């Protein structure tokens, strides 16, 4: 059977219809997730990541019709990026960031609300109770639903009323939404000529300055200018003055009153869902939890730097010791002190989250013993041991491991994709191995793999070759992949990178010595491995790393040296530029 014929009849799995509260509770203190909005200054001088996450939730909720029971926070904004109301880099960027954490059994709609909730908290704003159970929309809503600065006051009142807000709540929602962040000239040239025009003097702190400065006639807010400056530049002024500034005066008088009002109005906004959707909760973070994202590259199973973390939530000052350990595959306690490197405690999220990062510093984990779990051992000041529903143990299943090294999983030519996974022995011909390919809207296609042979005495290799991976919408920063093993006895094992899927952006071009496929469509798995030869000296400008010659100034997996793997640092935009890993917005 040709590969094209094979892929034509594959199983398709739709996105999650309900979120798993366990995964959401872990994510609420996940240091990698929080790091995109914490501290509140994230985004640099020209962006405010927390403000962008909050703004995304509002624009997503803006299509809600309270009377008809339609719209709300449903992630429909992912289909609405061409709506003029969503112009600029903000919304595509946020949806890409959130998609990195779109796990099995978590809806994108719940992620939109969670991201906004955490964004407010990271800026010292109120703790908004978090409810889950939102369903993700299958398509866009109609354009023209979002209140925009150039719209009339009557239009603002009508649109907020449609959403279910009173006039007072409209004023509160605008003021609370504009206490962080600002306006970009690139997307709003008729409002400001400043690259990033802040709403108030404390754009990275959630406080009532947006109200006090307005009442004091301090015109920092680019949307709170005199009405004579035009509709767009006076948008906030016109909203705030609907009740003759009574609400703004009350919020300016008392910061706690401001925070309380924001908690209530955002709680209402995040709860806007279509009729028939029943939210559950509220839920809170686990007191103790952790996660890690191991990598298998070219046969070596490691815990790269910046990928594992153990976290405590709300325990500052209450514990005496905070240590980590590990167990082997069989459950026995790991004793190799060099295998697990643990960093000192660091704080984030205004001190509410304490983190110990860990890795194996690229030291391979022996395939004979494998890895069963990372254990978090916390002794409190009173001598008790901190536990929370078993979250003090981060379990791991190394039965099947995606190999994302460029000798096993790599891009061939413009569209070819070679993928390999290692499966723990013994070999059973009745085992079924599949590669799971997730597209940009979280639909998952299962592709059967072919047994290739033994990798070593512990693992066997399974493989596929896809002649044209673009047919499956595997976008670099929206799609993803993983592997699933169904044993002959019915047991199911997966490697989906902690259920968030590996990103296409981590796959590099096939290199010399890789599993190079044929240039024509061939049956899945019929790929010949090139025999290895004794490596010749590298030419000038290249260095021998892992048996091949690479340019350490540009090679993503050996950036600045053989032991520095840029792709382990991020699931998003990352490049090796002049021997340095450059992430995200720092890219030229």
Overview of the structural elements:
The protein folds into four domains: 1-17 and 399-532, Immunoglobulins (Immunoglobulin-like); 30-270, Peroxidase, domain 1; 288-395, Immunoglobulin-like (Sandwich); 534-588, no CATH class. A hairpin with a 3-residue loop joins strand 17 (410-412) and strand 18. It has 588 residues and is an alpha+beta fold. Residues 1-14 and 516-535 have low confidence and may be disordered. The chain contains twelve helices and 29 strands. The longest helix has 16 residues, at 255-270. The strands form nine sheets. Strands 1, 19, 20, 23, 24 and 25 form a six-stranded antiparallel β-sheet that branches. Strands 6, 9, 11, 12 and 13 form a five-stranded antiparallel β-sheet that branches. Strands 16, 17, 18, 21 and 22 form a five-stranded antiparallel β-sheet that branches. Heme b binds at residue 178. Belongs to the peroxidase family. Ligninase subfamily.
């Amino acid at each position: 059977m040709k590969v094209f014929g094979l892929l034509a009849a594959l199983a398709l799995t739709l996105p999650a219809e309900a979120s798993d509260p366990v995964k959401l509770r872990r994510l609420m203190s996940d240091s990698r997730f929080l790091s995109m909005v914490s501290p509140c200054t994230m985004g640099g001088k020209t962006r405010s990541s927390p403000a962008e996450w909050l703004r995304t939730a509002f624009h997503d909720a803006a299509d809600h019709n309270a009377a008809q029971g339609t719209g709300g926070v449903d992630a429909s904004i992912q289909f609405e990026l061409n709506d003029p109301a969503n112009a600029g880099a903000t919304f595509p960027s946020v949806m890409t960031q959130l998609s990195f954490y779109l796990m099995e059994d978590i809806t994108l709609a719940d992620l939109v609300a969670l991201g906004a909730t955490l964004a407010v908290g990271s800026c010292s704003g109120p703790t908004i109770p978090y409810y889950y159970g939102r369903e993700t929309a299958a398509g866009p809503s109609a354009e023209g639903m979002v209140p925009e600065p150039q719209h009339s006051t009557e239009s603002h009142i009508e649109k907020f009323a449609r959403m279910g807000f009173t006039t007072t709540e409209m004023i509160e929602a605008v003021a609370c939404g504009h206490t962080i962040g600002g306006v970009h000239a690139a997307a709003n040239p008729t409002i400001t000529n400043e690259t990033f025009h802040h709403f108030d003097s404390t754009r990275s702190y959630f406080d009532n300055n947006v109200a006090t400065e307005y009442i004091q006639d301090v015109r920092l807010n680019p949307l709170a200018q005199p009405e004579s400056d035009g509709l767009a530049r006076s948008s906030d002024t016109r909203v705030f003055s609907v009740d003759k500034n009574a609400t703004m005066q009350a919020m300016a008088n008392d910061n706690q009153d401001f925070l309380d009002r924001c908690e209530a109005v955002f709680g209402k906004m995040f709860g806007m869902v279509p009729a028939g959707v029943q939210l559950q909760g509220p839920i809170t973070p686990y007191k103790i939890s952790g996660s890690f994202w191991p990598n298998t590259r070219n046969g070596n199973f490691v815990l790269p730097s910046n990928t594992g973390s153990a976290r405590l939530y709300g325990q500052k000052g209450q514990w005496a010791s905070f240590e980590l350990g590990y167990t082997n595959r069989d459950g026995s306690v790991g004793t190799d002190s060099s295998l697990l490197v643990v960093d000192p405690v660091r704080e984030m999220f205004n001190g509410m989250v304490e983190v110990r990062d860990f890795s194996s510093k690229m030291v391979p984990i022996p395939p004979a013993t494998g890895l069963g779990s990372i254990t978090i051992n916390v002794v409190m000041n009173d001598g008790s041991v901190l536990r929370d529903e078993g979250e003090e143990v981060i379990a791991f299943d190394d039965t099947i491991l995606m190999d994302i090294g460029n000798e096993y999983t790599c891009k061939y030519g413009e569209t070819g994709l070679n993928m390999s996974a290692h499966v723990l022995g013994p070999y059973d011909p009745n085992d079924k191995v599949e590669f799971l390919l997730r597209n940009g809207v979280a639909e998952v296609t299962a592709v059967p793999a072919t047994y290739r042979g033994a990798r070593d005495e512990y693992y066997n290799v399974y493989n596929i070759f896809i002649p044209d991976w673009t047919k499956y919408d595997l976008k670099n920063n929206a799609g993803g992949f993983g592997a699933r093993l169904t044993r002959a006895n019915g047991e199911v094992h997966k490697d989906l990178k902690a259920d968030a899927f590996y990103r296409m952006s981590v796959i590099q071009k096939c290199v010399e010595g890789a599993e190079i496929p044929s240039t024509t469509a061939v049956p899945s798995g019929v790929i010949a491995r090139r025999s290895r030869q004794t490596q010749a000296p590298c030419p000038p400008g290249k260095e021998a790393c892992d048996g091949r010659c690479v340019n350490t100034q540009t090679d993503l997996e050996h950036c600045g040296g053989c032991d520095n793997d840029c792709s382990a640092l991020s699931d998003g935009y990352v490049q090796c530029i002049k021997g340095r890993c450059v992430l995200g917005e720092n890219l030229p």
